[in-house]
C-alpha cells in the first residue's frame, strides 16, 4: 500500500486525504495546530468545487451552514451611508465559515486516516524518511504539502517563499469581536482612498476586517503581532465611522490574523516524491474569493491522478497539466477584486456614484473561471 503523508489539516489536506484513502492509499495527516480549527471567516465554494463537494456528499451540510448574507451597506470616508443593497445571488454558490468546511471534511475522513495534531515535519529525507518536530521518525512513499500560503513543505523542497510570492499591494487584518453592534447576516463596509474597514456578521459571529494599500509590503511587521496592531491603528488613526471602536476591539482580540494580500505562483508544483496542493501551491488571494474552491478541486485532481496513473511521476505531471489553466484564470480574477478597495479618491468617487441609488447588487453572470475545470469521473473506490 502506498503510504502518503499530508502536511496541513484545513481544506486541501483533508480533501486530498479523503480521495486518496478511498482509492486505497494509506494516509497520515500532520497538523501543527493542536486540534482542528473551527469557526473563522466566511469563504465561498463555487463552480467546479461545488461538484467536488457534491461528490464527497458534504453539500447538504454546507448548505445548512450557508451564511446567507442578506444586506451589504457601504459607507463613505465621512461615515455617511452610500448605499444599502442585497448581495447579488449566484445560484448554487455556498458561503460558509472556513472552519465549517474544514469540520465537514474532517468528519468524512477521521476514521480512515491517521491524524497527528500538534506536530509538523522537521526534516524530509530521501526517499521519504520524515523526522517530525516531536522527534518521531517515519517513512512514507509520497509527501503532499497542504500547509497554506506560507508552506514549510514548499520552502523545504522548492526554496524561500519570496521566489514565489507575488505581493498585490494590500495588507489585511481580521479578527472576531463581541457583537456589540447587534448585526446578523450582513456586511457593513467603510471605504476611504486606499483603506477599508468592514464588519461582517454571520449568523452568530462578528468578524472585523481592515485592509489598506501599501506600495511595498511592510516586511518589518510580518513576524511581530504587536507591531501589526500598531500599524493598523496608525493607518486608521484619523478615520471616523465605527473605526475607533473597531481598533479598540482589535487591541483586545485574541485571534487577530494579519497578512499581506498576495498570490503564490510557481512554475511547478512537484519535485521528486513531494507535491503541493491548495494555497501552498497556488494561493489566489481573498481578492478572488476562490482559494477554497481551488483547494478542493486541486485536492480532487491530485488524488485522482495518483489513483489513475502507474507512478507518481506521471500522476504529478497529469495533475499539473490539468490544473494549471484553471489556476491561471482564477488568479487573474484578483485584478477585478481590487475594485473593492479603490486606492485613489477619484476611483472611490466613481465607485460610490455607481453604488448610489442601487437597491440590489446587479446580478452578474458567474465568472466562467469558477467552472473552468471539468472534473474527470471518479476513480473507482477500492473499498
Ligand atoms: C481573510 C480571508 C478571507 C478569505 N476569503 C475567501 C473566500 O471568500 N473564498 C475562498 O474560497 N477563499 C477565501 N480565503 C482563502 C481560503 O481561506 C484559503 O484559500 C483556503 O483556506 C486554502 O486552504 P488550504 O487547505 O490550502 O490552506 P490553509 O487553509 O491555509 O490551511 C493550511 C493548514 O496547514 C497548517 N500548517 C501550516 N504550517 C504547517 C506545518 N509546518 N506543519 C503542519 N501543518 C501546518 C495550518 O495550521 C492550516 O491548518 C480567504 C482567506 C482569508 C485569509
Automatic annotation (TrEMBL):
InterPro entries: FAD-bd, FAD/NAD-bd_sf, FAD_aromatic-hydroxylase. Pfam families: FAD_binding_3. One of its GO terms (molecular function) is FAD binding. Residues 2-309 form the FAD-binding domain. This is 2-polyprenyl-6-methoxyphenol hydroxylase-like FAD-dependent oxidoreductase.
